[in-house]
Amino acid sequence: MRAFWTTFAATLAADQITKAVVVHGMNLKSLGQIEVLPRLVEFRMAWNRGVNFGLGASGSELVRWGLVGLAIAISAWVFWWVRRERFGARSQIFAGLLIGGALGNAIDRLVYGAVADFLNVTCCGIANPWSFNIADVGVFAGAIGLALFTPQGARHNTP
Fold this sequence. Notes:
Elements: H1 2-25, H2 28-31, E1 33-37, E2 41-48, H3 61-85, H4 89-112, E3 115-121, H5 134-149
Antiparallel strand pairs: 1-2, 2-3
Helix pairs in contact: 1-4, 3-4, 4-5
């Protein structure tokens, strides 16, 4: 499970460190927007109180705590599944990405009451209205990787 723990720790740390640097260190929470690479990448502050793209963002404490609980429950299940099946390093890496990202966003909900999203990528003249963060990338890449590249019915005896 070394690949899992390394990827989990790296994903969680990268997420929380980038949020601390950009949101607080660069004061994005007050500035709202900072151009990084004009017409391609900018930091745009968005406090997400819902799920992806702010869906279900009622601002209620029930939704907040429900999403924290859901992130913990899914993370626990994925960890149990990957450990039980003794999947190889590739699946452990995907699980580490997913769980590191899910818990990174759960930490935000606990600390701020919402997820701190700040990355905005625009290309080819199409204005992208949504922001995301490193945790979102981890959740997405981990979930896709587990769905597409985890062997079905095959156990791997890697430590």
